[in-house]
Amino acid sequence: MRLLSYNMIKRLLDIIFSSILFSLFIPVMLLSMLLIKIESKGPAIFFDIRVGLSGKAFNLYKLRTMYQNSHRGFVVDNDPRVTKIGTILRKASLDEIPQLINVLKGDMSLVGPRPDILKNYQKYDEKIKKRLNLRPGITGWAQVNGRSRISWDERYRFDLEYIDNVSFRFDLKIVLLTIKNVILMKNINLPA
User: Fold this and answer.
1) Which helix (H) or strand (E) holds 8?
2) Helix, strand, or coil here: 93?
3) Residue 76: what pLDDT?
4) How many domains does the chain have?
5) Closest-CA residue to 190 (of 102, 100, 65)
6) Contact 120, 155 (CB under 8 A)
7) Which of 51, 62, 105, 138 is most deeply buried (CB count within 10 A of its CB)?
8) Residue 192 confidence (pLDDT)
9) Which domain holds residue 68?
């Protein structure tokens, strides 16, 4: 019952805060989209199929940071697949802005385990499947503890720790640490 009321209140807060944030970031997103289109061919918005609540697949939206038709996979520092504007967007985490649409649609939450790719999902054991009990988040406990600089096993461990201790206080802590990390550009991830 506690988790049910938490999820209902969290969903309401997600809608309220995502609406506010999306409204505030529309000019930044539109400018970013224009710069993406000027620098390289292809759509400004990139989407990828991810796995969310209860194992349901959905399209995760991001601003495109790589040249069109670049092969997928992890990005390394100074990766030639990443555009100049893409490097800036990634460092400032602005490429994540379109995920606010995912939150408004109900695919995601502001805070939760990051949505995984299908390839990884197909290898989940029963323990890791607990990640699917909550909506995935734009940010989460694993993101504030290393993002892509930590192994998949460590990410899953942080995600499970979050799930076992889920609370509004924990969510607030993650949001504050996320803001700090974005401002300091700490633990910036470069995965595709």
Assistant:
1) helix 2-39
2) coil
3) 63
4) 1
5) 65
6) no
7) 138
8) 35
9) 2-184
pLDDT tens-place string over residues 83-94: 999 999 988 889
Q: Is residue 126 in a domain?
A: yes
pLDDT computed for residue 152 by the predictor: 85
> Residue 41: what are its φ and ψ, rounded to 5°?
-75, 155
Torsion on CA atoms 131, 134, 138, 139, rounded to nearest 10: -70
Q: State pLDDT tens for residues 112-151.
A: 999 998 888 889 999 999 999 999 999 999 999 987 788 8
Q: Which residues are 62's β-sheet partners? A: 46
Q: Is residue 31 part of a domain?
A: yes
Provide the 3-class DSSP secondary structure of residue 103.
helix
**What count of other Cβ atoms lies within 10 Å of the Cβ of residue 177?**
17
What token pair was written down for 190? 């470069």
Instruction: Show the tokens assigned to 28.
Output: 């930044």
Residues of the chain with pLDDT under 70: 1-4, 72-77, 186-192
Are the CB atoms for 136 and 112 separated by under 8 Å?
yes
Domain assignment present for 192: no
Residue 189 makes CB contacts below 8 A (sequence gap 6+) with 90, 143, 147, 148, 149
* Structure tokens belonging to residue 91: 């460092």
